[in-house]
Amino acid sequence: MILKGRIWKFGDNIDTDAIIPARYLTTSDPQELAKHCMEDADPAFITKMKPGDIIVGGENFGCGSSREHAPIAIKTAGVSCVVAKSFARIFYRNAFNMGLPIFESRELFDTIKEGEEITIDSAKGTITIVKGNKVFRSNSLPPFMEQLIADGGLMKHIGKKSKEPRV
Amino acid sequence: MGNTITEKILMAHTDLKEIGAGQLINAKVDIALGNDITAPIAIKEFQKAGGGGKKVFDKNKIVLVLDHFTPNKDISSAQQCKAVREFALEKEITHFFEGGQVGIEHALLPEKGIVLPGDLVIGADSHTCTYGALGAFATGVGSTDLAAVMLTGELWFKVPPSLKFIIFGSLQKWVSGKDLILNIIGRIGVDGALYQAMEFTGETIGKLPMADRLSMANMAIEAGAKNGIFAPDAITKAYVEPRAKRLYKFYASDNDADYSDIIEIDASKIEPQVAFPHLPSNVKSVSKAGNIKIDQSLIGSCTNGRIEDLRVAAVILKKRKAASTVRLIVVPATPDIYKQAMKEGLIEIFLNAGAVISPPSCGACLGGHLGVLAEGERAVATTNRNFVGRMGHPQSEVYLASPAVAAASAVLGRIASPTELS
Lengths: 167, 422
Description:
The complex is a heterodimer. Chain A is α/β, with parallel strands linked by helices. Chain A is 34% helix and 19% strand. Chain A has helices at 16-19, 30-34, 45-48, 69-77, 89-97, 106-111, 143-151, 154-163, and strands at 2-9, 54-57, 81-84, 102-104, 117-121, 126-129, 134-137. A five-stranded parallel beta sheet of chain B has the order 4-3-2-5-6. In chain B, strands 16-15-14-17-18 form a five-stranded parallel beta sheet. In chain B, 30% of the residues lie in helices and 18% in strands. Chain B is α/β, with parallel strands linked by helices. Chain B starts with a helix and ends in a 10-residue tail after the last helix. Chain B has two domains: 5-264, Aconitase, domain 3 (2-Layer Sandwich), CATH 3.30.499; 273-416, 2-Layer Sandwich (Aconitase, domain 3), CATH 3.30.499. In chain B, 61% of the residues are buried. Chain B contains 14 helices and 18 strands. Classes of the chains: A alpha/beta, B alpha/beta. Chain A binds chain B through residues 13, 15, 17-18, 21-23, 25-28, 39-41, 43, 59-60, 63-69, 72, 86, 88-90, 93-94, 97-98, 153-156, 158-159, 162, and chain B through 37-38, 40-41, 44-46, 48-50, 68-69, 73-74, 76-77, 80, 123-126, 128, 140-145, 147-148, 190-191, 194-195, 221, 224, 226, 279, 366-368, 372, 385, 387-390, 392, 394.
């Protein structure tokens, strides 16, 4: 999978209340949740961002609640992936389960500026800042995880696999 | 090389003979929990994976508690609760709680003996780690993981490395488990235990009452931990024995178990603690808080809504009144705690102090309802998170503290130590 997009830069410890405030959790409708994506970190984010854009965060991205509404809001808003120095563990698991690809890179964060464009090669595990062609290492995604993301998340993936003929 | 208590409990839920940190395992789950916010997504995911017509893996091992936006705060919250109720009835879930049966889940499950020592518990709520106080392995997961467990009774885990805390020394007056855990998070940071097990040991822990242990394990997630855990002992046995309706097992770490780090803490030096906005790690001693005026004091939540917490608050609030500028809200965490507080005359003390008594609910803690903050308002709260907008308007502030500090602050109208009142 090759992802290309403009980045929006956030700081350390972006928590799930900032990603999707609890006051909006009276619904699990993805479209409704997406309207408030990142609202308490940057209220204008949802009006500024375009589909395919990428969120870049610092340490411990997604800390706090176990709410899956957080990766759902990010994914449904059209953000193609999140790159952070590190992720909180429940968010890490939830993101993949929802089919939102995430990548870890400590170096990218320190170099990149808001609005720059990056390209991610998930099989190779590389992130490139387009301007200046600077390349950074990241985690690669194994084929099963690429398939899980392509299927739209864990449960759709499982559902699809259970329908495949057994050999 | 020996094993930690966390490794031993995880291994006991697999067919493995050996286990170590970093290993990926598939394990059987004893109890799986969901609430009115996370269960609706889990139910959708359950259907997506073809679970529609199927039974759940074990109707006695799934717990559904409608505690977050209840009593239903609006129509959409009511719809979410309705969806969970219909699922619970259709699947004949034994442990389904709503209406007057509802308690805040992490106070309710230990109280009812639903979670026990040696259990492997997952919950679609990050504070599921609370049950580590009983000597169980308990961790928060997302709704999809809950859905997978509802179908299969199993889930994959990465065995966490353990971070050991040795806590010694006698606690000062008014210092509680809440102050210990705030102090620890202040030392190691909100990702100081990322992906790890926090194992609490030492002479101070050996004497620590169960309510304090539950408060500490509850906030392990605020240091990024996968779980917090205490070796069960006589205090654990006294708590679980009258509640347990099935067998349970005590595990303990081996002397030669491997730890990622060992941190020693002299608890006698710790004063009551306050976590300033907007991170639980932004901790100061209450004596260094300065003059922080407050608009609201919230005493309750899965961290500090137990009868012991209410007793401490009542000692301070007896024959005193909350400042006229402060809204004092007391939330008994479960119906049994509420009844006990009435029996002991605590509710009357709170009412005389000018408090609002809330039904058991998570509402105020996460800015849902029953105590939401306006722009520019400040609250001292016995809860566990003080992120931006956590209890209401994005420009409101939350200061985390113990019930003793929250009660004293309510009386004085500013963040204050109980010693200022005596």
